[in-house]
């Protein structure tokens, strides 16, 4: 992927680079350039750390990362180098990919038992939340709050959307996530690639095994890996999710200012889930005859966001 000084990203086209930047080419090395100042630097450094971590856990699943750095001739051009792998254009075998991801998640244990990552990683050009956090509910709440803020910054404020954000963050997140870590239940943070979709996976022509790349890693609930596969626009879908078990588009709205298609999709999803879980966490606990559990840090996130909206302020 090459990015130019133009703010519009170049995802799928060849871009000419000055010959002085290309001094030698090794057929065993793939080069990826980003020309976007500090954002570009963060992108390649985060990808190098992500790919290195993935490769250390499951070497056959990724190209071997080699280095990242900045061109001496132009401090705005940053690069990431990795092993060259000959890959096919078709999707990898569904069972092989599912088995490989399941193996990654089994072996990729968090080094400190917390959710997060040791460096900043980005979703597209947007930093994602990576601070080390004790609970999945708090980590997800802080991550979602950041995505909501980015989306509002990108698309502008909307009262209906803002109220749905509040309800989703304060009612839906604790309802769905707090039960995973209370009442004797526990989950473990696992290493995830962070952006598995058909543009970031391919079959290795030589070995036939799947290859994943363009990683933006965090240690998270392993099932978050499957979230992009539910989007109708992707070729990978239900069969890949089902195969994984046998062994949300808000961020996209942030990346495309002025394109409200993804916002509408998110609004529909939020309305559906809120209607399905209208009782919230407290109602769910009461119905089950259990005592409610608390998560002070997550509640602080919810209250902070609600107070901004109740005051009629932007959440930014």
Describe the main β-sheet briefly. 3 strands, antiparallel
Number of strands: 9
Rg, nearest Å: 21 Å
Quick one: overall form? globular
Report the end-to-end length measured between terminal Cα atoms: 30 Å
Order of helices and strands: EHEEHEEHHEEEEHHHHH
Helix segment count? Answer: 9
Query: How are the strands of the largest sheet arranged?
Result: 1-3-2
Helix content: 40-55%
Helix/strand structural class? alpha+beta
- Average pLDDT figure: 84
Strand % is 5-15%
Uncertain regions: pLDDT < 50 for 5+ in a row? 1-15, 21-25
3D structure, described in words:
The protein is built from nine helices and nine strands. Mean pLDDT is 84; it is low at 1-15 and 21-25. The strands form four sheets. A three-stranded antiparallel beta sheet has the order 1-3-2, covered by helices on one side. It has a two-stranded antiparallel ribbon with strand order 4-5. The chain has a two-stranded antiparallel ribbon with strand order 6-9. With 316 residues, it is of the alpha+beta class. The protein is 41% helix and 11% strand. The protein is globular. It has helices spanning 37-57, 94-107, 136-155, 159-177, 238-246, 250-255, 261-276, 280-288, 296-310, and strands spanning 29-34, 65-70, 78-83, 122-123, 126-127, 190-192, 201-203, 210-212, 218-220.
